């Protein structure tokens, strides 16, 4: 493989710097002198290169150099059928898990460099951060054809100092030619955009979605020398989707260089044809949806107040069919069961889409999956779409339900239909499951009816990636609803062909592809220890302010661990286990005449100070933390359970034992 001259000189410079950093030259001199002195016999006056390399290898110097040479890549546990080599990211990154990788010279790559930003006017007055000072940061997340990347966090500024390079692998997995070197014409048919999401993280660790942008990378196929520079204007999200938030300078380069470039007329014609094809499909679907809605209203005039949602706005303010927000998603080795998937979705943060001004109106915003995952929080619709996609990936017949909770609050949740007709509701925000048993309104008054345990009141429609059903039963109340979806007198279906035309795989570039899930970058044991230590300090300071001394019982703290593990197991599987052993251990740890009190609490963040403030608002917990008495011993145990996308469930238990004095 031949490298361009500038790449070759850059590679030589990197190797030279690495050898200087390890003082390899000095070590080679030492070995050379030692070899000549000890191993060279008097009759040999020449020392060959092979002899020297053998001596270097024996002393482990070559191994040391090879260990130090590494590229880093995002850890991606996504299952791949052909197991291709992972793509490479050339940036020094902070996550603790780094993997070595090789660049395959037989593959075609797109090298995307982010060379700074400008005109982020919201941060015009932002002061320069002092060394070591915690400040708000920008992070750029990318997804392209099943590969995900994340930039180094950079301080928020009017001209943020982005300097990152991402090596994106370009190949047609679907055609089975993943190992071939694709040419420009073949790449022109790859209409997947590079999805870029800009996240702002404030000094408290709270994340905000700043911008979501789909980069058309194929202009590089017609660029001179296979290199093009683009100024990408990022627009805001939600209500600010027409307002510019800043500009990123991006450089695209094909690697290895293309032998034959395309003309700009060919690429622009291809883009125009794709846009026309997509627009025509969307127009036809809109015509069909209007006709379907007219027919639905003719069934019963009251249907116009039911929550039948055919289109939803994404973070960029684009109206998309709701069915395009869901598709089967496999989590590889990261999640093992549907219930574990429900637990994972429930520990992602819940936040309603921000709305400017009062009035209590709900801002409409269904996020694309990448924006939701990178932010690590979203509204109930985002949670429901992800959970439904994961359950479909596990082979279940799953649907997103659109309806209301108590007081008529709009809500979405997930429903699965068993082969035996069992209907199960899954609450995506909590992970709770409910079996639906419909009430028969025609039964005599004396017949005992099931009492619904779920919080849902009405249901307007259900949908997944292939189906859309509008509820046309006389009542839209969930408790009397019959979920016989193939009975057209109860559920009005949409044409499967119409849905397929605007949803993958039938749709073209207007619908973003789903990214794979990433493994957690959090070390559960280290994080548990850090939060626990922070809480011990906070409790000691709080008691000191009250004039109380603090004595910690390490053994009692450790004994609390099984309870926290059992709580998480119960949340995940619905099965409680190990309670007998925990109770027995507590009885042994607490002497006769002493009283034990414990208070468990659950969080989905790792901020110890914030957790402590929440705990103090509970009178039970405050009673433990501020405990007075004879021989008071305090205990606290923290257990962090990690999930994909660095989501985590944090269980904390405060406890105390003291001598009862009557």
Q: Any chance you could write out the topology, listing elements then pairs?
A:
Layout: H1 5-21, H2 24-38, H3 49-58, H4 61-68, E1 108-118, E2 137-144, E3 147-150, E4 154-155, E5 163-170, H5 184-188, E6 194-201, E7 207-215, E8 227-235, E9 244-255, H6 264-299, E10 311-313, E11 319-321, H7 338-347, E12 349-350, H8 369-375, E13 377-378, H9 380-393, E14 398-404, E15 410-417, E16 423-426, E17 433-436, E18 458-463, E19 468-471, E20 491-493, H10 496-502, H11 524-545, H12 554-559, H13 561-573, H14 579-589, E21 594-603, H15 608-616, H16 619-625, E22 630-642, E23 648-659
Helix pairs in contact: 6-10, 7-9
| Poorly predicted runs | 71-101
What is the CA-CA span between the terminal residues?
A: 86 Å
* Total number of distinct structural domains: 4
The value of Rg in angstroms is 30 Å
Inertia-based shape: globular
CATH architecture of the largest domain: Roll
Report the mean per-residue pLDDT as an integer: 84
Number of strands: 23
Which structural class is indicated by helix and strand composition?
alpha+beta
